[in-house]
């Protein structure tokens, strides 16, 4: 370790992680004139080599199956060759473990911008009631903040990153500052008609995609390939929209391939920097700052805190409550697809659109819980249209249809006539779902790894059954038939594997005191005033709204607070 | 990463009236943005490749001939489009097999099994058999494959579902003799189908119209009316 303090560069803040939380922290703090260091465990992003927007499968000899047909052996990229995930469910040399009797899968990206380079970009505000769920049904916990506290920051986040949508006045999904939304596609109009009949609300989707110019970014050109990374940055990614512009100020130092190990503390109980592994040289290094911001993802930030043991906090930094790692949550997922004869033989058109569905169904039964056998709600996402054929698109059809002229004709006729629904629901945080340090395993950087434990309860299973019935109703109401799985199979496969919706949040939740939480309502550690956690770790509940927009808003609010406190000399 | 800070293609670079062309210019290394242009490029590539005969890397001539014949049978030419052979399925299998020994083994072994089975049934190899004999063996494999798949699905459900935990007494005839053939046919079929539908020929066969760039997204009326008329909401 370097020993001459006069030669040490000290930053106003060091941010660990460059995804939605870290990107927002960098953007906001740089705009305030601060000098910031940003640590990213993966490499710098080069969009020209990493993003495969507009490429065709036949531009590659392997057509997307990857070298040696890796995709056929389950060894291809997690979401296909063309997606820009730069990570996966397993990272070589960086394992995690899962406790006996549990299932959990952890998706990590290792690149500047993290998962925001490829994520679905669904951008829903939490509802007012989402912040006080315990008051509503006596389950889970209330947040220490209210919708009114965060609303101005939803405004700021939406205006900065750019979100499409329409004003609808639906209590479960508050309106925001939206760019205009593109029109619904044909299969989505059928879904809407079906929903109208069934009393289900179906409105324009809300995604972090712009439809008019914003800060030099071009509006969406409707190729629908957001998951490949957007070369025009019309779809939000923290790398292109927040970090790259911040780099141009000269006040942001980006350290890539820097794997944070622990928070360094001084003798007065304040954080003074980060101890990290430089992956290029496999050496331990330090970086110092007046404030430390963890935004490495809910579980990775939790891991850093658990690994930051001090005399005062032998069980992990800021863990006086013993709740560090506890009440880990994911989203409840269930999917069902159907075949819609009305769409057979339709005149072909381009259904790529702005990527993802142009309509969605927010939770519509928020005041009808007395008639349901489960608490909380879910929203519904729609799949369908004439997607670009890829490796694996017709394996199922071919197995069903055999081979030859008849198979070819049937595949052509059925193209675009399938429709899919995905439910995304809220779980109740429970004591069986948590992460802790594995006592025996370290990664290849020598850092103790996480061990996950997770359980769905009846609350989640019953919600998934409600999804199943609802989706089947929507499909049959539009004249379609439920396809694929038998009822028995659906029962057996009836809920997503924990972690696989990639909405894992919690672990360092916020609350009213250091007895019931790790952080306060400003994402600030109760016990370490200059330490903040600005990612999904702070979540107290995991409403049926995808978490990213709320991470953006909470991080922005936390940065405003942190800057004020620094000015006052409190941080 | 280069010294310059990477960014995105800024709005100034894009004239909304000629978005496709400008985007193509602005985004070097993409170049291909609409279907026509893409097909043009693809035709060029194909023409370039056609200059010399394709050099087979992983297969003996007789093996490759069988793959070619299979590609024609699995996705045949019809009045809409060409075949799996036209779409480069044998070359696709060859390239990947040449990069992956495990994949090459699957095909080498599978092709040998197929010829052995044909000798037993018809005293000839697959390549030298009549078209009727060729489809007859594939029909046998498809049928056996369906039985096998149904059995597997049931097993999976029984294994996963709490409802069936006590279930223990069912038997399904297992076409053991055909097992290797079922596995091989699944491989050659899925890779041929993949090669076909990921080719420009296959994209056109389906009528995929995307991967474009537009300043406005429009859903055509004729499509909307077509589906609505045929739906219960007419």
What can you tell me about this protein's structure?
The complex is a heterodimer of chains A (571) and B (234). Chain A has 571 residues and is α/β, with parallel strands linked by helices. Chain A folds into two domains: 250 residues, FAD/NAD(P)-binding domain (3-Layer(bba) Sandwich), CATH 3.50.50; 203 residues. Helix content of chain A is 23%, strand content 17%. Chain A has twelve helices and 18 strands. In chain A, strands 1, 2, 7, 8, 9, 10 and 18 form a seven-stranded mixed β-sheet that branches. In chain A, strands 6-12-13-14-11-17 form a six-stranded antiparallel β-sheet, covered by helices on one side. A three-stranded mixed β-sheet of chain A has the order 4-16-15, covered by helices on one side. In chain A, α1 packs parallel to α6 and α1 packs parallel to α12. The longest helix of chain A has 21 residues. Chain B has a domain of 156 residues. Helix content of chain B is 59%, strand content 0%. Chain B is built from nine helices and no strands. In chain B, α4 packs across α7 and α6 packs across α7. The longest helix of chain B is centred in the middle third of the chain and has 30 residues. Chain B starts with 18 loop residues before the first helix and ends with a helix. Chains A and B meet through α5, α6, α8, α9 and α11 of A and α4, α6, α7, α8 and α9 of B.
Sheet with most strands of chain B: none
Structural class of chain B: mainly alpha
SSE sequence of chain A, one letter per element: EHEHEEEHHHEHEEEEHEEEHHEEEHEHEH
Q: Round the Cα radius of gyration of chain B to an integer and report it.
A: 24 Å
What is the distance, rounded to the nearest whole angstrom, between the alpha carbons of the first and last residues of chain B?
56 Å
Could you tell me the radius of gyration of chain A in angstroms? 23 Å
Quote the distance from N terminus to C terminus of chain A.
25 Å
Strand count, sense and closure of the main sheet of chain A? 7 strands, mixed
CATH superfamily of the largest domain in chain A: FAD/NAD(P)-binding domain
Indicate the proportion of strand residues of chain B. under 5%
Q: Tell me the CATH architecture of the largest domain in chain A.
A: 3-Layer(bba) Sandwich
Order of helices and strands of chain B: HHHHHHHHH
Number of helices of chain A: 12
Q: What fraction, in percent, of the residue positions of chain B are helical?
A: 55-70%
Count the strands of chain B? 0
**CATH topology descriptor of the largest domain in chain A:** FAD/NAD(P)-binding domain
């Amino acid at each position: 370790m370097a020993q001459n303090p006069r030669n040490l560069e000290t930053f106003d803040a060091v941010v660990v992680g460059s995804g939605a939380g870290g990107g927002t922290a960098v953007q906001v703090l740089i705009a305030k004139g601060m000098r910031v260091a940003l640590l990213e465990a993966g490499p710098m992003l080069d969009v020209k080599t990493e993003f495969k927007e507009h490429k065709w499968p036949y531009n590659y000899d392997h057509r997307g199956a990857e070298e040696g047909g890796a995709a056929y052996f389950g060894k291809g990229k997690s979401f296909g060759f063309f997606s820009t995930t730069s990570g996966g469910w397993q990272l070589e040399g960086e394992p995690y473990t899962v406790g006996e009797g549990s299932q959990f899968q952890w998706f990590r990206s290792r690149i500047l911008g993290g998962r925001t380079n490829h994520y679905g970009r669904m951008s829903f505000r939490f509802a007012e009631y989402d912040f006080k769920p315990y008051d509503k049904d006596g389950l889970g916990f209330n947040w220490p903040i209210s919708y009114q506290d965060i609303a101005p920051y939803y405004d700021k986040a939406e205006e900065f990153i750019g979100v499409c949508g329409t004003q609808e006045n639906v209590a479960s999904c508050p309106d925001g500052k939206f760019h205009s939304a593109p029109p619904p596609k044909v299969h989505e109009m059928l879904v809407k008609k079906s929903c109208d009949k069934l009393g289900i609300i179906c409105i324009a989707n809300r995604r972090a995609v712009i439809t008019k110019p914003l800060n030099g970014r071009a509006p969406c050109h409707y190729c629908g390939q957001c998951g490949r990374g957007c070369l025009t940055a019309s779809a939000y990614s923290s790398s292109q929209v927040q970090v790259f512009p911040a780099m141009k100020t000269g006040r942001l130092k980006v350290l890539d391939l820097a794997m944070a190990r622990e928070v360094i503390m001084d003798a007065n109980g304040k954080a003074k920097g980060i101890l990290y592994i430089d992956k290029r040289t496999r050496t331990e290094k330090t970086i110092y700052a007046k404030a430390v911001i963890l935004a490495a993802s809910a579980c990775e930030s939790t891991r850093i805190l658990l690994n930051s043991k001090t005399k005062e906090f032998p069980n992990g930094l800021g863990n006086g409550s013993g709740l560090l790692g506890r009440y880990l949550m994911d989203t409840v997922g269930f999917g069902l697809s159907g075949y819609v004869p009305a769409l057979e033989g339709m005149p072909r058109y381009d259904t790529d659109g702005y990527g993802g569905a142009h309509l969605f169904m927010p939770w519509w039964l928020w005041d009808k819980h007395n008639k349901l056998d489960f608490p909380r709600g879910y929203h519904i996402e729609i799949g369908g249209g004439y997607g670009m054929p890829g490796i694996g698109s017709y394996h199922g059809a071919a197995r069903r249809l055999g081979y030859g002229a008849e198979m070819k004709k049937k595949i052509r006729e059925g193209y675009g006539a399938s429709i899919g629904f995905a439910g995304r629901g809220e779980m109740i945080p429970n004591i069986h779902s948590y992460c802790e340090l594995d006592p025996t395993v370290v990664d290849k950087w020598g850092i103790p790894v996480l061990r996950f434990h997770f359980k769905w309860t009846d609350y989640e299973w019953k919600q998934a059954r409600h999804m199943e019935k609802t989706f089947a109703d929507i499909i049959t109401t539009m004249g379609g038939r439920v396809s694929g799985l038998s009822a028995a199979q659906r029962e057996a496969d009836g809920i997503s594997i924990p972690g696989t919706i990639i909405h894992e949040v919690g672990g360092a939740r916020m609350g009213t005191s250091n007895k019931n939480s790790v952080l306060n309502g400003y994402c600030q550690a109760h016990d370490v005033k200059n330490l903040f956690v600005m990612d999904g770790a702070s979540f107290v509940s995991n409403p049926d709204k995808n978490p990213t927009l709320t991470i953006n808003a909470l991080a922005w609010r936390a940065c405003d607070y942190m800057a004020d406190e620094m000015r006052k000399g409190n941080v | 990463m280069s010294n310059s800070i990477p960014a995105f293609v800024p709005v100034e670079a894009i004239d909304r009236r000629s978005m496709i062309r400008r985007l193509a210019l602005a985004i070097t290394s993409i170049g291909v943005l609409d279907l026509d242009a893409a097909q043009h490029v693809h035709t060029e590539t194909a023409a370039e490749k056609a200059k010399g005969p394709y050099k087979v890397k992983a297969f003996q001539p007789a093996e490759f001939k069988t793959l070619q014949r299979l590609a024609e049978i699995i996705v045949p030419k019809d009045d809409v489009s060409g075949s799996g052979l036209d779409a480069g399925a044998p070359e696709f299998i060859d390239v990947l097999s040449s990069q992956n020994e495990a994949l090459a083994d699957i095909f080498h072994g599978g092709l040998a099994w197929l010829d052995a089975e044909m000798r037993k049934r018809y005293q000839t190899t697959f390549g030298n058999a009549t078209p009727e004999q060729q489809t007859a063996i594939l029909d046998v494999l498809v049928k056996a494959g369906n039985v096998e798949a149904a059995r597997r699905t049931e097993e999976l459900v029984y294994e996963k579902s709490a409802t069936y935990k006590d279930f223990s007494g069912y038997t399904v005839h297992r076409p053991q003799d055909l097992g290797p053939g079922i596995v091989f046919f699944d491989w050659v079929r899925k890779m041929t189908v993949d090669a076909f539908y990921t080719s420009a020929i296959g994209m056109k066969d389906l009528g995929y119209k995307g991967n474009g760039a537009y300043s406005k997204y429009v859903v055509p009326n004729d499509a909307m009316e077509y589906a609505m008329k045929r739906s219960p909401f007419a």
